[in-house]
Amino acid sequence: MKRKINLQFLFVICMTILVTMILLTTIFTEIFKEEVMEDLSTYTMELKSIGVFENMDAIEEDTFQEFRVTLVKSDGVVIYDNYINPNQLQNHGNRPEIRDAIKQGYGQAIRKSETLNKSNYYYAVKLENGCVLRLAKESENIWSILMRFLPYILVLTIVLVVITIIIASFFTRSIIKPIEKLANDMEHMESVTTYKELQPFIDTIVKQHGDILRSAIMRQEFTANVSHELKTPLTAISGYAEIISNGMADEADVARFANEIHRNSNRLLSLINDIIHLSELDVMDNAIEKEEIDLNTIVQTAVDMLQLSAGKRQVRLTMSGVASIFNGDKMMIEELVYNLINNAIRYNKQDGTVHVEVYPADERVVLCVTDTGIGIPKEHQERIFERFYRVDKSHSKQTGGTGLGLAIVKHIVAKHNGDISLESEYGKGTKITVWIPV
Ligand code: ADP
User: pTM of the predicted model, to two decimals?
Assistant: First the structure.
């Protein structure tokens, strides 16, 4: 980056020097040309006014050493030239300055000289007798002027380049400094003063940094929770098995212990299943394999499947729904629906009800599970979507809960870019609504 800024500075300064030089040289050349022409014209007019060319015999050759003087008749024939014998000169009628002089009284022209780096300046006037008097002078052209200035230009360029390099490196260092500070102290990025242009970038990094820290903490907590959750049923299984194998249990106990071992193994299995599921959802890329599915059909199947379990708990399970087609991952949606209805049955009261509604609305499909169950106290409502968070641990365990159901639901909703909301009143019931874009 430093190198780039330095090079850009250098480029800008070189371009500036070049453009300035071209401009200055052009302006200077124009002024120079005007000056030479003015000299020529003044001298020509003077010669005309003294009338020396009206009488050819009075001309003295070395009067005009400095200029070439030519006298041309109106038909273009050269009758006098102080540099070249007029007989050797061609007809001058087609020279622009002569043509103009015949036509409008005066004419001027600049032509390349035979000498390199020089130009010939011509000025011509029409005399009283119809002839044209032309004065010429050889003078420098733009290239020779440029060449004359070249050493100064080079010295100036070198000086400017050196100054630019010093200033540019100073500038780049001061521009880069806050960025280097940021890179060296990611922990305290907020306290480093930088430019306002960098602020969005810093905000994003601070946010990402925070997210990474949070997710690291969450992962740690999750691992600790998983170990703890797995340990409980395993300890129970191991304990009962030990008693049986020692022959310390009588026949009636063996059956009871075997039942406990069976119950705890099932719990272990559902825990492991949920953990695997959740970690699969975690690692999966954002894109999921979607197909066209009808939420109503899925809910219908889940309700049919859970009727038995609802019956056992004396809970009335009903549903009302219309076809609600959308694109989603069928297995994930089945799990989401199952978890929500299962919770509504498990956290219900005797003779309570669960009502499930399905309908499409505004480019979305809506699933609404309402129960008249035990409800969730306000202070727990925010947290029940966290992994292993349970309002009443023993109730959850008794009913085969793992504490991961709602965490999985939340994940699935997010994978489908949907929304979830919870309304609950302690002791009265709960309503969970899910919206998924079609
Ligand atoms: P669990 O396996 O314990 O049911 P979930 O993640 O499904 O785990 O739910 C987390 C907690 O949220 C539950 O332990 C329970 O306390 C509470 N909960 C979930 N659904 C309901 C509901 N419909 N009514 C009352 N409490 C609920």
Answer: 0.61
Q: Over the stretch 301-315, which tens digit does the pLDDT of each residue have?
A: 999 999 999 999 999
Question: How far, in Å, from the CA of 144 to the mean position of ligand 1?
Answer: 94
Number of domains in the chain: 3
Nearest atom in ligand 1 to 404's CA = 6
Answer yes or no: do 296 and 275 share one domain. Answer: no
- Give the mean pLDDT of the chain: 89
d(CA 279, CA 202): 31
Q: Is residue 75 classed exposed, middle or buried when 0-12, 13-18 and 19+ CB atoms within 10 A define those classes?
A: exposed
Site residues for ligand 1, CB cut-off 6 Å? 339, 343-344, 347, 371, 373-376, 384, 389-392, 396, 401-407, 430
Q: Is 180 helix (H, G, I), strand (E, B) or coil?
A: helix
Spacing, Cα 248 to ligand 1 middle (Å): 38
- Nearest Cα to 67, choosing from 51, 93, 44? 44
Distance 369 CA to ligand 1 centre (A): 13
Structural domain including 57 reads 2-145
Q: Are residues 131 and 233 in the same domain?
A: no
Q: State the distance from the centre of ligand 1 to the C-alpha of 406, rounded, in angstroms.
A: 7
Reduced to 3 states (helix: H, G, I; strand: E, B; else coil), residue 119 is: strand
The residue out of 283, 305, 320 marking a domain boundary is: 283
Query: Which of 283, 316, 338 is a domain's end point?
Result: 283
CATH number at residue 252: 1.10.287.130
